[in-house]
Hints:
The complex is a heterodimer. By secondary structure, chain A is mainly α. Chain A is about 50% helix and about 5% strand.
Amino acid sequence: STQFIPPYTEDCRTDTYPPNGPTFRGAVGWYTVDLDSPPSKRWDAVITEKKTHLVNMIQAIRDLANAFVPSGKLIELVDVTLPIMADTLPSPFSEEIKGIAAVSGIPLGEVVLFNIFYEVFTV
Amino acid sequence: CTSIVAEDHKGNLIHGRNLDFGLFMGWDVKNKSWIISEKLKPLVVNLDFRRNNQTVFKSTNFAGYVGMLTGIKPHTFTLTMNERFSLDGGYIGIMEWVLGKRDGMWMSFLTRSVLEDANSYEEAKTRLAQTKLLAPAYFILGGNQTGQGCIITRSRLLNIDLLEIDVKLGRWYVLETNYDHWEEPLFLDDRRTPAMKCMNQTAQKNISVNTMYDVLSTKPVLNKLTTYTTLMQVSEGKLESYIRDCPNPCMPW
């Protein structure tokens, strides 16, 4: 019964495809990742184009972390320890993550955090 | 998250998913939305992974994330993963990793390796079921033949359950949110019942990409955490995805 609380729930929608209206924000662009290129270079094109949004998202996570630990120690911990973890990650993931950090200019520890977030989130 | 694999009455398999993320990670009071979910939406990209100038697999991803949460190996299989909550969770796996016990795989690195290297539904199923993980998960896998659709419920070390499509038993689809299918979902987060109600109302004779999108657009299957919807048709090798919004009134999760 807790899942039938209109207007937060609704009857089964129809005719929503092709996507349109207020629940459709937009289509998604296509990019190629060339697995024949070196792992550290594979994501350059994607990251170059999405850099600003990636920096904004990482900043939002930083703000959240600082809300919990205002001293900034949590971010410091991420920036000091997770680069070390980057070296323990299997290939080609380790090199790809380092390549993304280099192209985006985001600290390596924070790119590592984004990539292992599923495991971290359980905390 | 909500992932569905359905078989239509001609035996075609359709795989759809909503990717929900950002719960309790900051609420934007002014815009009535989750901060991280909104920051992730502009990062959604479709990726064509190629080797020797040939497509190996395609995926919907967040730029900067090298693992895979949603993908298709054209004409072979489709794969999505949903989060599974467990006390024996990822933080234990991370601690073991830090302490040097590294025989488990990071979840999204496993899905990426399966999409890259597995050459059949059965091989993908075996690897997803049997590879040690750092964190529990649900893997939702679709194949390219009738009956090939399953939910693999994983703990960190074990394959706990495998639920597969069985049209003879009337199970023409499998559907997973974030709770073990043999248990009731958390009463405050039951997206499964509304989703199954809409799938049953659609019925096998009417299931298609269009009607799968309808199901994934129905509140609360669509909610404030939903960043994108992806639809995949293995026989055509097609993946399409759409960034979503859920205007008020809408369930926060």
